[in-house]
Design brief:
single chain; 442 residues; Pectate Lyase C-like; 25-stranded parallel sheet; 13-stranded parallel sheet; 4 helices; membrane
Length: 442
């Protein structure tokens, strides 16, 4: 009995020790788990809370923008208080928010570029930049962004500049609500307002560009969206782009530029609801299309331009629901242009609606309104019963001998235009609108 009692007691003690050891092990695991969680939370809290805000002002400890950028850590914010900072070549090489309070002036004193961004995730907001250095060997810009992503340039004012905003090999950024005012006199010593070179996926929106060489310029830049901008009084083009595909331009105004808008060597372009106005001059036009394919041009207004659209070597383009009002030439076709369609457009009081320099035509003109159409509509279906031939013989003559434009309103020209419409000899006999609208499209 004693043996069994001792054995039983020993068993109970042994089992109790095992239970205690398990409890200690569980507690140890619990403490380690809690320690891990607290350490992780502390680390995250430290990282989140580590972003600092730096105040820069003339009387502050941080009085230099350049030096404060050097001191700042990634993801910090610099608040630049109102004042004048004579600084240039400000290198932003880390993610930062640089924001002006009351539009502080950063004066480059014409010594070079002002901001150069080479990091992702940079925001420049609310600064007044002036006096960019003019150079004949370098494209100095008020703001240059190089090989960067996810940037924002917004609410900036740029004046007395060479180039304004220059995006180079950058992507997924936003250029929003900036005012860029240049004083360009000659092309050789002036730059562009907003320039994109080898860039992609950029949103250019609500900017005002004035007095530069080209208001907005793109080269080798794809999937660019340009919306709600005003580009006016620029020396050469309001918008100029080459070798740039899959871009969208909508609700912009291009007014009183040297030669309007030039669109060249690109494809899959959409231009909708823009206004091209008062681009006058011996070589001026609202829009130049050269070697453009597979595009849509719709809902635009071309008003009081020497030439509304000048087309050369451009194919498979849809011209839909545009208004051509009081232009010299509404549409001037030069060179090989095939498989284009012109539908639902209003041609109102232009000197020449269509100018064409070839007898060959496979383009479609259908369902447009022509203010000079004098046909009738007996069945009252809103479509003229007599086809309209928009190409005048006089436009053919003027293309070859520009000096004859002085005879524009003469009775003799009216007579030969009428005879050409009755029996086409020099103009394409199949270039006609078989369904001209009796009322303009509203």
């Amino acid at each position: 009995m004693t043996y069994h009692r001792d054995h039983h007691t020993f068993g109970l003690v042994y089992m109790d020790r095992i239970w205690c050891n398990k409890q200690r092990y569980r507690m140890k695991l619990g403490f380690q788990h809690i320690k891990y969680i607290l350490g992780f939370a502390f680390l995250m809290g430290f990282q989140i809370g580590s972003a600092n805000t730096w105040t820069v002002c003339g009387t502050c400890e941080n009085s230099s923008i350049k030096e404060t950028i050097l001191r700042a850590a990634p993801h910090d914010t610099l608040l630049i208080e109102k004042g004048t900072y004579k600084e240039f070549e400000l290198l932003v090489d880390k993610p930062l928010v640089i924001k002006g309070i009351g539009y502080p002036i950063v004066d480059g004193e014409r010594k070079g570029e002002i901001f150069r961004v080479i990091s992702d995730n940079v925001t420049l907001d609310g600064l007044f930049l002036i006096n960019v250095g003019v150079s004949y060997t370098k494209d100095n810009a008020a703001i240059r962004v190089v090989k960067s992503k996810n940037f924002q340039i917004q609410n900036m004012v740029l004046e007395q500049l060479f180039f304004g905003i220059y995006l180079e090999k950058s992507s997924h950024g936003k250029v929003y609500h900036n005012r860029i005012i240049g004083n360009a006199v000659d092309e050789y010593n002036s730059g562009n307002g907003i320039q994109l070179w080898y860039s992609s996926d950029i949103d250019v929106r609500k900017n005002h560009v004035q007095g530069t060489r080209d208001g907005i310029y793109l080269e080798f830049s794809d999937r660019i969206t340009i919306t709600d901008n005003v580009s006016m009084d620029n020396l050469r083009y309001g918008l100029h782009f080459m070798f740039s595909n899959h871009d969208i331009y909508s609700n912009n105004t291009f007014e009183n530029n040297g030669a309007g808008v030039a669109v060249m060597f690109s494809k899959f372009i959409t231009m909708k609801n823009n206004t091209f106005r008062k681009n006058w001059g011996t070589a001026a036009y609202g829009m130049l299309l050269k070697e453009i394919n597979d595009a849509e041009i719709s809902g635009n207004t071309f008003e009081e331009n020497t030439i509304g659209i000048n087309i050369e070597g451009s194919n498979r383009i849809k011209y839909l629901n545009n208004d051509f009002i009081n232009n010299g030439w509404a549409i001037r076709v030069i060179g090989a242009c095939y498989t284009n369609s012109f539908k639902g457009n209003n041609f109102l009081y232009n000197s020449f609606d269509i100018s064409y320099n070839s007898k060959l035509n496979d383009n479609v003109f259908e369902g447009n309104f022509w203010s000079s159409y004098t046909g009738y509509d007996l069945d009252m279906d809103g479509i003229g019963d007599v086809p309209y031939r928009p190409v005048k013989l006089f436009s053919y003559v003027v293309n070859r001998t520009p000096e004859t434009i002085v005879l524009l309103r003469s009775l003799f020209m009216d007579i030969i235009d009428f005879s050409e419409r009755v029996s086409p000899v020099f103009t394409p006999d199949n270039l006609k609108d078989a369904q001209p609208l009796m009322k303009k499209r509203s």
